[in-house]
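lol ok so funny story. i was supposed to be doing the assay writeup but got distracted and ended up predicting the structure for this chain instead. priorities right. anyway since i did it might as well share w the group, maybe its usefull for someone
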Amino acid sequence: MEDQEELAQKLAEYKTEHQALDAMIERVMDCGQPVNLFQIQQLKKKKLWLKDMIRKLESALIDDIIA
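and the output, tada:
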């Protein structure tokens, strides 16, 4: 039971961080000033990694519920 709570907490943290990165990328791209493309690329890679981790955690939580 504790594992499910830990997974759910980590899932919420990852979702929050993913949303924050998404908002940050959007703000930087819409500011109308020159952007550091390398920095944007790194932010997008981290966002993609977070998305993958979110899917894995959601899958793990669903598997635990079914089992």
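The chain has one domain: 2-66. Residues 2-66 form one domain.
back to the writeup now i swear
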